[in-house]
Structures are given as C-alpha cells and as structure tokens.
Specification:
231 residues, alpha+beta, eleven-stranded mixed beta sheet, 11 strands, globular
C-alpha cells in the first residue's frame, strides 16, 4: 500500500495485488484496518480512527482505491459512486486481441457466493443485475494486448467476466479462462486512474496509480500508456 493523496476528508492509496480492501472469511488484515493504524500513528490519534470503505477492488487486482476519513465524505462519496459521478479507468493485459478495437459491452451479471464466481448473460435472468463497460484497444507486445476500460457499473468481477465473454480473458485470471496464473497470484488488471470532484471542497481530483516497478510486462507497456496520456 502506498498513499497517493490525502487531505482532511479523503485518502487515496495504491493497493497491491493480494491485499483485501475489507475483511473477509480469510481473516487476513484488510487494507482499511492497515490505513486506520497508519492514520493513528501519523497523527498520534487517541482512540478509534474513522476510515470508511467507499469502493472495492478484487483481491488479485492492484491500483487506486479511495477511502473516506470523515462520515460526511463517506456519505457524499457513496452517493457520487451510486450516481456515476466518479470516472474510473482500468487497464488490462489480455492474451487475445478483441475483434473490435473499441466497443461497449452490456449484459446481466449474477454472482454465486458458493464458488466466488460471476456469470454473464445476454438477457435478463433471475438474480442477475445489468452491467455495462466500454473498452479501447491501446497496443500490443509480442504476445499480449493492452486495453483501457471505463466502468459504467461496478459489479463483482465485472471486467474480468465481460472481457472473458468476448474471448479476451485477462492474463493470469485462471478463474475466468486464462491458461496460466501469474507468479505473484495477481491478475493483469489495474485500477489505473480515478477522477471526481472532491465531496467537500469541490476541487477536481485526478489520481493515477504508478505501474508495478518490478513487473516487466507492465513496464513494457508503460511507453504506450504514457504516450496515450500525453495525446
């Protein structure tokens, strides 16, 4: 975990793959608890520290995560996420190149708790929720392809399922059809950038997470990403 931005009301961090945002049945220490301790030590705060979970990333996914340091910011951020007022940009490395360089994908997603897996359907189905995202092809290496994704909805495993449904499973994602796992157990999907107006001050916040310095494939794609951001 690395802190990317902090003020009196919000804190934004770069989550490492493998970290969990909120507690689960594994009993592993969640990122929200690590942050509470970090804030407590940094500011020598007595008693309990407030740190609210605004949104989540899957355990094997790294990148930008926003937390609220005040109840006012938490309530307002929750509403902003609900209304789609937060722009989230993801990047993914896939083994296959999609047939279309740009496309909006829609469907209905159903999560099954028993096997911790989600399923996508083209038409409404009992218990399935509507989902949508748009992707854009950015470039290729010798064997892999880079996509930029903008989420319109934020359902469990949504990007992973929707890309797999068009024959483009994310590198390292065995759960959704890739051939091999990544050595560190991650999947090659990152919450790359987040943009929104500050829930209290109104200031425009635009934060990009750095690529993993020790991941040669992400670093190989860094020139494409940097050039795209400059355009």
């Amino acid at each position: 975990m690395t802190v990317l931005y902090e003020d009196n009301h919000i804190i934004i961090v770069n989550k490492e793959p493998g970290e969990i945002v909120q507690g689960d049945k594994t009993g592993d220490t969640p990122l929200v608890d690590t942050l509470k301790e970090w804030i407590k030590e940094k500011y020598s705060k007595p008693g309990n520290v407030f740190c609210g979970v605004v949104h989540r990333l899957d355990r094997p996914v790294g990148g930008v995560v926003v937390f609220a340091k005040t109840s006012k910011a938490l309530a307002r951020l929750n509403e902003m996420f609900r209304l789609g007022q937060v722009r989230k940009t993801y990047i993914a490395i896939t083994r296959n190149r999609p047939a279309d360089d740009e496309k909006r994908l829609t469907g209905y997603l159903k999560s099954i708790e028993r096997n911790n897996k989600s399923y996508i359907y083209p038409v409404p189905r009992d218990g399935a929720k509507p989902v949508a995202l748009s992707y854009r092809y950015m470039g290729s290496s010798d064997r892999y392809h880079l996509l930029e994704i903008h989420l319109e909805t934020g359902r469990k495993h949504q990007i992973r399922v929707q890309l797999a449904s068009i024959g483009c499973p994310i590198k390292g994602d065995l759960k959704y059809g890739d051939k091999r796992s990544n050595p560190d157990g991650s999947v090659s999907l990152r919450a790359h950038r987040i943009e929104f107006d500050h829930p209290v001050s109104g200031k425009h916040i635009d934060i990009t997470a750095p690529l993993p310095a020790d991941d040669t494939l992400w670093q190989a794609f860094s020139a494409i990403i940097d050039k795209d951001q400059e355009a």
